[in-house]
Design a protein that fits this description.
alpha+beta; SH3 type barrels; five-stranded antiparallel sheet; 5 strands; about 40% strand; globular
């Protein structure tokens, strides 16, 4: 099964790259498919690519559901 998960952008890098944070795990991803992303935005990430921006409330709901089913650690709340 493939999942696309919400992650918060914590750093913009050269080109179309960014670093995202998901429950304390940081990963570099590509923003090539999404326009106008800023630090603090939430994006849906799948296989290293941001697919679209996500409203913070929707990100919080989705992360809470993942935490509820045990897919994320306890630190998965949106700040």
């Amino acid at each position: 099964m493939c999942l696309a998960i919400p992650a918060q952008v914590v750093e913009l890098r050269d080109g179309d790259n960014a670093v995202v944070d998901l429950a304390g795990v940081r990963k570099e991803i590509s923003l090539a498919l999404v326009d106008h992303v800023a630090v603090g935005d939430y994006v849906i990430v799948h296989v290293g690519y941001a697919l679209n921006k996500l409203d913070p409330d929707e990100a919080a709901k989705t992360l809470a559901l993942f935490a509820e089913i045990g897919q994320l650690g306890d630190d998965s709340t949106v700040h």
